[in-house]
Automatic annotation (TrEMBL):
This is AraC family transcriptional regulator. It holds the Pfam family HTH_18. InterPro entries: DUF6597, HTH_AraC. It comes from Brevibacterium metallidurans. Residues 177-251 form the HTH araC/xylS-type domain. It comes from the Bacteria.
Length: 251
């Protein structure tokens, strides 16, 4: 069973994954079921059993075999968790790292209680990290721009949460080059690649691929055909979507 709730003040979602009791009773141990973690441009703080870890941003799908226990996590919007940790996302990409190796003076966790207890431990840590940090809105605005099919929206600007106004937004369809995105944010392409690696763990072109594919998946889940979802997400055609999907899932 999986459930999640948005935590806007942290730019994150709290999620809880617990074993299916019916499946366990039927003799299908969850430890024998590989899980596919698909890339989403995000980073997580996760509690599994008595272990607290940081899951870096994945470049491609990760296949793991989990035990029968519960997992509780905070999934942060792209570019947020590296700021809270005061580290580069590139140093944590494609790996799982114990929190104590990254967070100096990490609090002592009291894990292994209820899902609510583990969630509170994670939230307390995230709140402590956020209290010492002024979130830079540029990574959020850049991820938003890379996620959307690109036609500049004229004088429109990103008018989301307080502190993030003034950044450009994009509407409509059409694929913009990384050079165009860099220009929109007053960066050179080289600066954009360097900042993207630090904020997200990989370059802007790869992040755009991941976010566009995620958008297409959501459209398909909402009932659109693959061809319609591909067009709405900014792909040239459904075959282009299929190629990106194969590459990101490692098929």
């Amino acid at each position: 069973m999986y459930r999640e709730v948005s935590i806007p003040r942290l730019h994150a979602a709290l999620w809880i994954s617990e074993p299916d009791l019916d499946a366990s009773a039927a003799g299908s141990p969850e430890s024998e079921t590989p899980r596919v973690i698909v890339p989403d441009g995000c980073m997580d703080l996760i509690v599994m059993g008595s272990t607290a870890v940081i899951a870096g941003a994945d470049s491609t799908a990760r296949r793991i075999t989990t035990g029968p226990g519960r997992a509780v996590g905070l999934r942060f919007d792209p570019g947020v968790l590296p700021q809270l940790l005061r580290t580069s996302a590139a140093e944590l990409a494609n790996q799982v790292t114990p929190i104590a190796e990254v967070v100096t003076r990490a609090p002592s966790f009291h894990l292994g209680g209820s899902a609510g207890d583990d969630a509170r431990e994670l939230l307390d840590l995230a709140e402590a990290l956020a209290s010492r940090t002024v979130i830079d809105g540029r990574p959020l605005a850049l991820a938003r721009a890379l996620a959307q099919p690109r036609v500049p929206a004229g004088s429109q600007t990103f008018a989301g949460s307080a502190g993030f106004a003034g950044y450009p937004v994009f509407v409509g369809s059409g694929a913009g080059s990384i050079a165009e995105v860099a220009a929109d944010f007053a960066y050179s392409p080289r600066q954009l690649r360097r900042l993207s690696a630090a904020w997200f763990g990989y370059g802007p072109k790869h992040l755009a691929k991941i976010l566009r594919w995620r958008s297409a998946r959501e459209l398909i889940a909402a009932g659109h055909t693959r061809a319609a979802a591909a067009a709405l997400a900014g792909y040239a055609d459904a075959a282009h979507l299929w190629r990106d999907e194969r590459a990101l899932l490692g098929r």
